Amino acid sequence: MKPVIFGLSGETLTADERAFFSDARPAGYILFKRNVADRDQLRALTDQLRAIDGRADLPILIDQEGGRVSRMQPPEWPAFPPGERFDALYEKAPVSAMEAARANAHAIALILSEAGVSVNCLPLLDVRQPHTHAVIGDRALGAEPMRVAALGRAILDGLRDGGVVGVIKHIPGHGRAMADSHLELPVVDADAAALDIDIAPFERLNDAPMAMTAHVVYTAWDAARCATLSPVVIERIIRGRIGFDGLLMSDDIDMKALSGTPAEKARQSIAAGCDVVLDCWGRMDEMTAIAAALDEIAPEAKRRLDAAMATVAAPVAGAVLAELIDKRDALLAYA
Question: What is the per-residue pLDDT for 238?
Fold first, then answer.
C-alpha cells in the first residue's frame, strides 16, 4: 500500500485508472464535484473502488462541509449550512448550538454512508481571526477556541453516529492566514504565545481519528517550511504539543502553496512526518510519478490508518435524515 490518497478524473473509473489503482494500492481516494452526479452513480463508483482494493473499510474521502464547500449538492442531496451558522447560535444558546451541529453532521453522514463514502474532511478547527483571508471565513466555527472545540466535538460525534470518520483541519490552524494556500504560500508571523490560541481546539480534540495539515508557514516555529513540510512543526507541535496521534494527512499537495513536482512534494511531506499525502486531481501522469516516488506505507502510519477506520461502524439504527434536518433547522431558528 502506498501512503497516498488519490483523486479520480470523472464520474466513472477509466480502464487506466482501474489498472493503475490495482497495482499501486493507494491508502484511499478522495472525491470532488466532478466525480458526483447522482445517488446511483456515486454508489456504483465507491463500490468499484472497494472492489479493486478488497477492503471493506477503504477510506473514501469527500469535503462535505456545508455552505460553499459541498461536493454533493441539491437537488440530488440536501443543502447544509456553513460553520458560522452554528457559531451564531452558540452566541445565544451554546447547548442548542452543539446539538444542532451534531444533528447536522449526523445528517451529512447519513447521505455519505448511503453513497459509500467513509470519511468526511470536517470539522474545521481553524480559529477565525479578524482581517484575514476569506478562504476560511464563514467555514469557521468561531473566533473563540473553546467554542470551536465544543462545536468540533459535536460534529465528530455526529459523523461517527452516521457511520463516517471525521478529519480535523487544518492543523495546527489556518485562521490567521492572510493568503489562500490554494493560490500562494501564507506566512503567519504571530509569536508563539498568540499561536496558543490557534492550537487550543486541536489540543482539545487531539483524540480525533484523522487530521489534515495546513500549508502555512509559522515563523515562530519554522520560518523556512510550511507545516506540511516541516518536521519541526509535525513532531514538536502537532505530535508533541498538541498530542495528536491519529492519522496525519497533508492538504492537497497540488495547491500552489507548495513548490516542486508532485513526486517531490509527496516525498517531502512523508519525510516531514505526514502519514499519507493527498493528491486530488486524478492526473494519471502525476499519480504514476507519485506512486513511483513513494515507498510502502510505514508500519506506524498503517497502524494509525487502521485505528482511524476502526472508530466508526454502521450508522446508529433508527436515525432519519429528514428528522435530523428538521431538528437542526428548529434549533438554528433561535440564532
Answer: 98
Contacts for 179 with CB less than 8 Å, ≥ 6 apart: 133, 185, 186, 187
213 close to 174: Cβ distance less than 8 angstroms? no
User: Which residue among the candidates 53, 161, 222, 251 is catalytic per the annotation?
Assistant: 251
Closest C-alpha to 142, from 150, 131, 153 = 150
Residue 9 CA to residue 7 CA, distance in Å, equals 7
Residue located via cell numbers 516525498: 267
- pLDDT tens digits, one per residue of 165-214: 999 999 999 999 878 788 889 999 999 999 999 999 999 999 999 999 99
Tell me if residue 275 is catalytic. Answer: no
Q: Which pTM does this prediction carry?
A: 0.96
290, 263 contact by CB (below 8 A): yes
- Grid cell, residue 191, equals 509569536
Active site residue 251: yes
Residues 79-132 have pLDDT tens digits of 999 999 999 999 999 999 999 999 999 999 999 999 999 999 999 999 999 878
Tell me what the pLDDT averaged over the chain comes to: 96
- Grid cell of 123 as nine digits: 470539522
DSSP labels, 174-218: -TT-SS-TTTS--EE---HHHHHHHHHHHHHTTT-SEEEE---EE
How many of the other CB atoms lie within 10 Å of CB of 258?
A: 22
Burial of 318 by CB count in 10 Å (0-12 exposed, 13-18 middle, 19+ buried)? exposed
Q: Is the CA virtual torsion 252, 250, 28, 152 positive or negative? A: negative
In the chain, beta strands by DSSP E: 2-7, 26-31, 60-62, 64-66, 69-70, 119-120, 165-171, 187-188, 210-213, 217-218, 247-252, 276-279
**Which residues are bridge partners to 80 per DSSP?**
none
Q: Which of 47, 182, 207, 306 is catalytic?
A: 182
